[in-house]
Amino acid sequence: MGFQLDIQDIILKIAQCAPGFLLAIIIHEYAHGYVAKLFGDDTAEREGRLTFNPSAHIDPMGTILFPLIGVIAGWAVIGWARPVPVIPRNFTDMKKGMFWVSFAGPLSNFILGTLSAFILVLVLLFAPSDFSYLEQIAQMLKYSIFINFLLGAFNIIPFPPLDGSRMVAAYLKGETLRRYESLAQYAPMVILGVFALSIMGIPTIHYIIMPFIKLGNALPLFFYNMFS
Fold it and tell me: Exposure string (b/e) for 99-138, b if CB count within 10 Å is 16 or more?
């Protein structure tokens, strides 16, 4: 019976988290491709990636396996989508193109998280009190706030290959750029190290991400006061 309850809990968590998670990673990649097109690179569109269809963005590890492990282990449902292809040499303005295409993903998550907070307040204030799925919808929106601010904050960290590193690289040149980009070779080791330290309870990127998470958590109260 205990195992059955665990399975039920897992299914419920997936149902509550999946909509916000999928929308967050799909919008993130779509934003990269859309802004790249604005700057002259239509590679994402030509390869069928400028779409909201989840099947075009699924990464077996990041979109399915890693989030599932997170659910089973009791973590948050986090992961990633397959990166959209971008060819910077097609940009009409290389420097601006690199910066804004890179920033578009995290920015889209912050916007989506803010919109989720606004909709949450509307639902809590104006949905009928006897609405059967009120609690479930509220939980979906709360998770959407969390995952969007988490992804946005994580991706603006200026360490290769995260979006933040490409935002910085857009304004570097020559040997400085080469040395900065060479940090990417250490990315797997750094990520594993951060993960290991987090398991041991030692904060690492916690100090970067938590201010954004707190901002996301504060938004529902901000919007609630707007209607008061």
Answer: bbbbbbbbbbbbebbbebbbbbbeeeeeeeeeeeeeeebb
Number of domains the chain contains = 1
Full residue range of the structural domain in which residue 111 is found: 2-226
**Residues 29, 45, 47, 175: which is the catalytic one?**
29
Catalytic residue flag (residue 29): yes
Could you give the angle at which helices 2-38 and 94-126 cross, rounded to 10 degrees? 140
- Picking from 27, 36, 30, the residue whose alpha carbon sits closest to that of residue 113 is 27
pTM of the model: 0.90
Taking the chain (228 residues) in consecutive chunks of 10 residues, what is each chunk's mean pLDDT? 64 89 97 98 96 94 89 80 95 95 98 98 90 90 96 91 91 88 79 71 79 96 91
